[in-house]
Amino acid sequence: MLDLAVILKIIGVSASGAFAPGPLTASSITLGAKNGWKAGLGMAVGHTIVEFPLVLAIAFGLSTFFQINVVKMLLGAVGGIFLIFFGSLTLKDALHIRTLKTSNDKLRYGSSILTGIFLTAFNPYFIAWWISIGTALLLEAVAVVTLSIIVVFYIAHVWLDYFWLILMSKIGSFSKINLRVYKSILLILSIMIFYFGIDLLYKVMVLQTI
Dihedral angle at the C-alpha atoms of 173, 177, 178, 182, nearest 10 degrees? Predict the structure, then answer.
């Protein structure tokens, strides 16, 4: 079993990934503006659906697969396209929404869980974090690889994602009090999401690197 010192180190190092500005953070604020804190919970669940199997794969020696250049390029290309699509939906709302009384607009971007899955699975920076920082932390913390130890390790890591994404969605929900504030937040976030998507595609297709 992991001792307290190791768990605290896992939490500290994990914060570098969980709290970093990125597509998940921006998107959780965007969805939170319409769906409140539950959007962040859904995104965190989607994130977990992808991340936990990845942690198991790394723990049991499959991390080299994710270092294959073709795999990284494919993830980057799909991820960049999805971010641009998501950003376009956000921008459309920022420019055209006329009222906050839109009961049928709940989860209009699709399930927040699916959004969490896509933004995690096709984010090569997330993969890179796990095959570098995450792998080093895992190997240091887990002397003997067993499923029970990996579960404890992962819980010590993943609760930060739930905390952060729910918090960001709750912050996004505050914009409901004023239509102008809401539209301004959506506009800013759409620009951020577009940037993440274009930057990702540029690195994949032009620089051919992640």
Answer: 0
Helices vs. strands in the chain: H and E counts, helices first: 9, 0
Q: Angle at the Cα of 83 (from 81 to 84), degrees rounded to 5? A: 65
3-state secondary structure of 109: coil
* DSSP notation for 169-194: HHHHHGGGG-HHHHHHHHHHHHHHHH
pTM of the model: 0.76
The residues, ordered by sequence, that sit 6+ positions from 165 with a Cβ below 8 Å of its Cβ are 24, 25, 28, 40, 41, 43, 44, 47, 116
DSSP structure string for 31-69 = HHHHHTHHHHHHHHHHHHHHHHHHHHHHHTT-GGGGG-H
78-102 per-position pLDDT tens digit: 888 888 888 888 788 778 776 655 4
Q: What distance in Å separates the CA atoms of residue 128 and residue 27, rounded to the nearest whole number?
A: 20
